[in-house]
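pasting for ref. prot 1 ->
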Amino acid sequence: MDEALKTDIFHPERAIDSIADFIADPVQAAAFPQTILRFRNDRAARTVGLDSLDDAQWIAHFGRFNPLPDAQPAPLALRYHGHQFRAYNPDLGDGRGFLFAQMRETESAGGRLLDLGTKGSGLTPWSRTADGRLTLKGGVREILATEMLESLGVTTSRTFSIIETGEDLVRGDEPSPTRSAVMVRLSHGHIRIGSFQRLAYHDQTEEIARLIDYCLRHLLALEPGEVPALTLLNAVVERTADLAASYMVAGFVHGVLNSDNIAITGESFDYGPWRFTPRWEPGFTAAYFDQTGLYAFARQAEAIHWDVAQLAQSLVSHAEADALVEVLRRYPAIYEARLIERFLWRLGLTAPDGDTARTFVIAAVEALRGSDVLIDRFFFDWRRGDHDEARYPGAVWEKARSAFGALSQRPGALDHPYWQSDTPCSMHIDEVEAIWAPIAERDDWSALHSKVEAIRAMGQAHGSVPGQPRASRGE
């Protein structure tokens, strides 16, 4: 056993064993030519008692995937189906990743069951024609996405580890050959809507009941109620509506909101062609292959709602259809309420009532849509009170200013030094490329480390989102 783990902090779990017989396949990690540690998230590791590992131990577990003490003995590739751009695909599953281990986070962090899952760890039964690998640039992009989202209040997986693996990969969408890596993410579960879709596709009704029980018991900490399927769907509706709202307030476009990419916990994960839209541009897309704009910035709430409807369809063997539909109908109102709450949170504001808050948010979004103002600049300026007519001219901004006057600033909203700086922290595509360039050209990682530090400072300045688990923001 690792000496570093002889504490009361690391608490391995094997809850997945109760459903592994129908949801997963045992696999082996690839044997990589090299294992060069490039990023370790000690802030996240502290929440599960793994920060005391030295670098050699870290590489042994997260580069060569030696089992953690008392954790599951072999990785598990999860099985699932899903709608991809609204077309059903029954040939999915973990094709370049697996569930490596489960553990409890510390009580002070929330005490949730967490998964360590991988990306780029080699071939599985679900790899099809792919190579099971991850580019190093893809790993760097995942670091930047998860750190930025975490600091902007989005409930997200956390990039736990990036290890360069010494292989040259060929990819059609970037200069090749390119460097390779294996990534580990820390997530609150890897059960997706597509996990239920697969069971429904195969008429595995008993297994659906067992998966419902697993999700309620281990991931959502909910009593099953009279109809467990309705309890589950209610929770998923609430959490995914909040997820969609958080994307909008962050200015984030996930890019691939297929049903296999929507977690039952409502936690955002699996970042591919993501982008942050500089401006409030409803039609902004992240993926070059999203030619119809299905997952455009302003269509994300609709897309996630559609995915949740596919979960409801998968549960018809366990609940009345009319009851499932009634639960689905809750989504739009929850989404709107959480969008308003999160919008005010990012501005450090409180409202005397819901109508006052709604009036302001509608006015602000209307103004943003019709202007060239950057989203990050707007939230930064208006939180600090820099919103006079000289900076924000025109009748549409005057309407927002008028509504703003009825709101109050939260105590301590401007206490952090971040609010005394000149420029807000952002993460647009040109910045991503600028951070990657010195890594690719001369193995210089300083820009990445500096950016992560700046992003985390911004997160501290914003504070916690009400009702969000502290560990989801690394606090």
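and prot 2 ->
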Amino acid sequence: ARHMHLPWAIEPTAHHHRLLPYEPRYGLSTGVTNRDFAGIARAFSEIRSPLKIVARGAKLPPMPANVEVDERFVSPEELVDGLYRHAAYVLVYLRPDPDEREALGCKNMLEAMAIGRPVIKSRGGSMDGDIDVEKEGFGVYVEGGDAAGLREAVEAMHADPARAAEMGRRGRALLERSYTMERFGNDLHGFFERL
């Protein structure tokens, strides 16, 4: 059998994957699978800045007053125009995956790159081998379970919006170079040609 690793891709020309102006108001966390909501609650109990969590169907622990949880179904248009638009950063905070078996949060990270938002991501999981947010300059890693490290990363994003906006632009540029559906299709076509 032959196999090939094809990194995920997204269509940056789609309406809900367009680059948005950087107008930061709050942090944003989307997705539910393997998210460390308890860790988020601990960290944000000592952070003043607001966070919005979109977590349909998740059972979350009690959250501090500065964390707003939205459990509704949110359309892609509403997600972009109503939530991502004013995100200062996108938080992908996962429970540890020491065996690197999962690529959870990949879609959230690609969406953040598409719209030009920096990423705060917990280290670990198979996705880190594909996209190193710090090496590529569009985000920062924090250790899973490190509430102090998460607080520091969040505060740094809010303290320097010009730097955060530049990180978002780097993410968008990387997406356009390496994570488009055109690249994915060409790689897949090349794989079949070589069979």
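The mean pLDDT is 89.
The first strand starts at residue 26 and ends at 30.
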